[in-house]
Design a protein that fits this description.
With 151 residues, this protein is mainly alpha-helical. Helix content is 53%, strand content 3%. Strands 1-2 form a two-stranded antiparallel ribbon. Strand 1 and strand 2 form a beta hairpin. The mean pLDDT is 91.
């Protein structure tokens, strides 16, 4: 029920469900997604804030190795990504399959706003993925000139 409330962006329903069963905050579905993954993916800042107040695992990984920060960046939700970073989400490996950092993903999506925020918060511009590529390599491959110039 909590997953449906999160996906439906029903903050009040989420609050009621968590009050009745706090363990649901870190429950996982078959792909190991938590409610925080879904809230981050859908860009619901109020639900992300509420889940974090109830000790949601900020760096939880899905079976594919994706964190809530990964999903917020993938969907372009800069305010959610910034909140997760400010609350301590890891900027290092946010996708274990590719060994991408948050910066790699921001370079791939072309989000200069997110990329700048990550660098301002200490992201390592020289970090390499499984193939030895940095965020600059990824931006070049994807043709994101603004990001290439910034990096």
């Amino acid at each position: 029920a909590l997953y449906k409330a999160v996906i439906g962006l029903h903050l009040r329903c989420c609050q009621i469900l968590i009050q009745k069963a706090e363990h649901l905050v870190n429950s996982k579905d078959l792909s190991w997604r938590t409610p925080l993954h879904d809230a981050a993916s859908w860009g619901s800042l109020p639900i992300v804030e509420m889940l974090l107040r109830h000790d949601a695992h900020i760096d939880a990984q899905t079976r594919k190795g994706q964190t809530p920060l990964y999903l917020s960046i993938l969907q372009g939700h800069s305010s959610v990504a910034e909140l997760l970073v400010k609350k301590g989400a890891s900027l290092q490996i946010i996708n274990t399959n590719k060994r991408w950092t948050a910066l790699h993903l921001a370079a791939w999506t072309g989000s200069l706003v997110i990329l700048e925020m990550l660098i301002e918060n200490g992201a390592d511009v020289d970090a390499q993925d499984r193939q030895g590529y940095t965020a600059l390599h990824v931006a070049l491959q994807e043709g994101h000139g603004g990001i290439v110039d910034y990096l």
